[in-house]
Amino acid sequence: MDYRNFDLTDFILDEYFQDWVINPTEASDMFWNNWMENNREKKKVIEQARAIIQNLNFISIDISEFDKNSVLDHINAAIRAKELTEELKVPGEMLDLEDDEVNETIIYALETTRDKIRIWYRVAAVIFVVASLGISLAFLHNYFDVPSQPLTEVNECIEKSCGPGEKLNVKLKDGTKIKLNSNSKLIFPRTFASKQRKVTLIGEAFFEVSEDQSRPFIITSGQIATVVHGTSFNVRAFPYEPEIKVAVATGRVSVEKIHMYEDEKTQQAILLSPREMAVFEKETKKTEKLKFEFIKEMGWKDGIIHFEQANIHEVLQTLENWYGVTFIKNGKINEDRDYTGSFNNKSLEVVLTGLGLVFDFKFEIKGKIIELN
C-alpha cells in the first residue's frame, strides 16, 4: 500500500491505519512511526486522522442487530441537516477545514467507500467522522449505544536536541536516563502508553532504561528498533553514516529491522548481551553481532574522544561535532597518515597540539573558527 498519496479521508477509512490507532501492536507502531519519519510532509494529516479516531471511545458493534442501510441513511441525513452540538467534537482548528468542507468530505467518503470496505469498518468509520462533526451523543446512543465519556487528549510529543559541541542529559517520567550526544535528537511522548514506552532517536545517545517488565522500552532509529525492559546501552544512528550501531553495557537488548512495507519478510531479532554490539548496514540491510571495546563505542559519554585508525577528514569531522567549531585548511595537510588514540576530557587546544604532531599542521584558534596551516 502506497500511503504517500493518501488524504485525510483515506487515512480515516484505511483498515490498517484504524487498527493501529485502535489496537496498536509493536509491529504497527514501528511501521507507522518509521513511515511518518520518512514522510514528514504527511505528519499533520496523520495527526488529524488520529485525532478524529482517538476522540471517540466506542464499543464493538454487532451489525446483525440493526439495518445497516437505515443507519447510514440516518447519518447522511444528520450530516446534511447539520445536527451539530458541542458535546463531542474535534477542534476545528485541528482539522483545518470549514464546516461545509468537512460535510462534503464525509458525504463523499460514505457514498464512495460502502462497497469497498468490510461492514464493521464501514460503520466504525462513519462513527469516527460523525464524531469529527460533533453530532450529538444522543444520536449515537440511539444507534450504537456508545457510552458518554470525556474526550481523550492527543498525546503531545516532546523533542530534545543537541547541536555541535553540545551534550544533554534527559530524564523521562518512567525514570529512564538518557545522555544525548552532539548533533542528535530524541523524540518521546509526554506520557507513555500503557503497554509500551517508545522513543525515536536521530543521532547518538546512551540509555539507562528503568526496569518495567510490563512495558518494554522501544527505540526506533532509522531502519531498526531496539527493545529492552531495563538495561543500559548505546545507540548510534546518524543519518549520514552507513551503519547503525547498538552496543550493550548491562542487561540484554533485542535489535530488529523495521519493516517499511507490509509484504516484507519477518527477520529474526538479534539478542545482545553485555559487551556485544549489533551493526546494521544500511545499504545491504544486514545486521551483524560483534564484540566491542567500551572506550570506542561508549567513551564519549564520559568525555573521552577515541579515534581508531582515523584519517584527517574523520578526525576533523569528529572535532567539529565535539567542540562545535569549523576548520579551515590553508594549504595541504598530510592525508597519508591515520591516528589511533584517545583524549580524556581535554581542551581543544590540547587535542590539536597532539594531532598536529601526527598530521604535520599548526593551528590558530579564532573563536569558533580554527585555521590549520
Features:
373 residues; alpha+beta; Jelly Rolls; 3 domains; 13-stranded mixed sheet; 3-stranded mixed sheet; 27% strand; elongated
Could you describe the 3D structure shown?
The chain is an alpha+beta fold. It has 3 domains: 3-144, no CATH class; 157-294, Jelly Rolls, CATH 2.60.120; 303-372, Phage tail protein beta-alpha-beta fold (3-Layer(bab) Sandwich), CATH 3.55.50. Helix content is 33%, strand content 27%. It contains 12 helices and 18 strands. The chain has helices at residues 8-13, 15-22, 26-38, 43-54, 68-81, 92-95, 99-113, 119-133, 137-144, 294-298, 312-323, 348-359; strands spanning 157-162, 168-171, 177-180, 184-189, 197-208, 217-221, 224-228, 232-237, 243-250, 253-257, 270-272, 276-281, 286-291, 304-310, 326-329, 339-344, 363-366, 369-372. Strands 1, 2, 3, 4, 5, 6, 7, 8, 9, 10, 11, 12 and 13 form a 13-stranded mixed sheet that branches. A 3-stranded mixed sheet has the order 15-18-17, covered by helices on one side. A hairpin with a 7-residue loop joins strand 4 and strand 5. Helix 5 runs antiparallel to helix 7 (99-113), helix 5 (68-81) runs parallel beside helix 8 (119-133) and helix 7 runs antiparallel to helix 8 (119-133). The protein is elongated.
